[in-house]
Amino acid sequence: MIAYLLFAVFFGLLLLGLHRKVIARVQRRPGPPVWQEILHMLKFSFKSTWVPATASETLFVGIVLVAIGIWSAALFVALAGGSLLILFGIYMLHKIVEHGFGLSSGSPYGKFGGVRSVISAASEIPLFASVAVVSMVTGSLEISDIIQYQAVHGPLIAALPLAALAMYLVLLSKMPFGPFSIVESKELVSGYKTEHFGVWRAGLEVANGLKTYVLFLVFLTVFFGQLPFAWTLAGMVILIISLSFVCATTPMLSPFDSVTVQTIITGVMLAYAAVLGAFA
Amino acid sequence: MTLLAAVVATGLAMVLAGLLEQAGLVPLWVYQGVLVAMFPVFALTLGLWWMAPEGEEDIPFLGY
User: Fold this and answer.
1) Which of residues 40-59 of B touch A (CB under 8 A)?
2) Dist. CA A143–CA A150, nearest whole Å
């Protein structure tokens, strides 16, 4: 289990490195090596580290522990075939984590990033709508039940393509350099993580690796069923490459436009759920 | 020294929980709970123990 946890951290970071590489190649830049994010984590691990004078010491440090802890828990819930509601809760906790990162530092850039993380909570609404549709069709929120349903009826991506698209947009909103990445946009330096440097940033990188792995794992499991391990990893690579193409070719939206677009997507998903319910 | 002790203690706790789970002495969720609680502390204290001391050059990394 601990080996799997470490694997998830490193593979998640490798996916984020691949993300940067593909974006760079699409934009005709050489880009960093695909293992760049792993190097970042290792590099930050032995940088000289302290707590800024303006920071709330307890929150500044504690929030890093929480970030790693919640995504470790999410990994175990996903692997155990637990409830999507628990994963929802963890996903919501991540909002609080981003907020805590930003507000704990005392930096205006971090604070704005933290505030934007609350605004970007609109990105979670398509997730609710997507999972509501999945629950209506399969009759359960347990991942293990959803896997069983797909073993009998085939992958949900064929039956519920719009729900898959909505969840894909949730993944997109969590990707760096994407159209919805308003929490760490460049006008805020690095947004909520601006002041977390050294070991604190290394911890954040660990959490980011885990988060990426878990979100992709859940997407593949919910819409494609129980895949062999190698196929799961291949699916994650295909997912990150497709997301990278979107990120490389779309500008970052303003916070207002980001929320508007995500709200429209939610409206479409609710209408889709109503239609499915009417014909069920 | 305190940091190294924390690294060793959290690392040992995770390994011990894994061994106990494999032996069937504790359920899987207890092992997972130990990992969720200990892994973040292990990762941070490992970095803090490893980090370059203030006033000296950073350690160059082969990847750069």
Assistant:
1) 40-41, 43-44, 46-48, 50-54, 58-59
2) 11
Q: Taken in order A91, A97, A98, A103, is the CA torsion positive or negative?
A: positive
Check CB contact of B24 with chain A, cutoff 8 Å.
no
Mean pLDDT, each 10-residue run in order, chain A (280 residues):
92 94 92 90 81 80 90 94 88 84 79 76 73 86 92 90 86 83 69 76 91 94 92 95 92 82 80 74
**CB proximity list for A230: less than 8 A, separation 6 or greater:** none
